[in-house]
Design a protein that fits this description.
Blueprint lengths: L5 E5 L6 H12 L2 E4 H9 L3 H24 L5 E4 L11 H5 L2 E7 L2 H8 L13 H19 L2 E4 L5 H12 L4 H10 L2 E2 L1
Parallel strand pairs: 1-3, 1-4, 2-3, 4-5, 5-6
Helix pairs in contact: 1-7, 2-3, 5-6
The chain binds shikimate-3-phosphate (S3P).
Length: 188
């Protein structure tokens, strides 16, 4: 079974897209690309500044342009921002020649992983948990719809998630291959 040109990680803030993406890329010998970090580098400013000055809409325009550019790259693992699924025009860019992995994570884990973070403007509210719940309600169906693989990450170390993903993407043993055929598009 051959490896896909690109693996795209989608999922909410705090799902571990960057950590898992970097480790997965190393494991597969792929290049790791993080859409948010590249936007920041190009812009010379961090995401809170972009939201402040250009609004969420300005950020989303930059994000769409970035996804368009990065969807032309091969041999890559691409970590996307949690809201990348919100614009329908991004969907073909995310899907093109890619295996899309949804890192599905409980609200509790998202809260735990993001509570000290000042770099996520949408969570700078009195009720970040409420925000995460509302975003999840809207976005979970979109992540699910786009995903080739749904990977549950709760109570799993990044290392275990990466091992399960590698087995799923490039099954080596006949047993792993049978398992993948049986599961089809699945929850791991
Ligand atoms: C956002 C998620 C962030 C970043 C921006 C908006 C969102 O990325 O793109 O703050 O809309 O969920 P992470 O998912 O990497 O935190």
């Amino acid at each position: 079974m051959s490896l896909p040109k690109r693996i795209v990680l989608v999922g909410p803030m705090g799902a571990g897209k960057s950590t898992i993406g970097r480790m997965l890329a190393r494991e597969l010998g792929y290049r790791f690309l993080d859409s948010d970090r590249i936007i920041e580098e190009r812009c010379g400013a961090n995401i809170p500044w972009i939201f402040d000055v250009e609004g969420e809409d300005g950020f989303r325009q930059r994000e769409t342009a970035m996804l368009d550019e990065l969807s032309a790259e091969s041999g890559t693992v691409l970590a996307t921002g949690g809201g990348a699924v919100m614009r329908p025009e991004n969907h073909p860019m995310l899907k093109k020649d890619s295996v899309v992995v949804y890192l599905r994570t409980s609200i509790e884990q998202q809260v735990e992983r993001t509570c000290k973070d000042r770099n996520r403007p949408l969570l700078q509210s009195d009720d970040p948990e409420g925000v995460l719940r509302r975003l999840f309600a809207v976005r979970d169906p979109l992540y699910t719809e786009l995903a080739d693989i749904i990977m549950h990450t709760d109570r799993k170390s990044p290392r275990l998630v990466v091992r399960q993903l590698v087995n799923r993407i490039n099954p080596k043993t006949p047993r792993q291959q049978r398992q993948v055929r049986k599961e089809g598009r699945n929850h791991v």
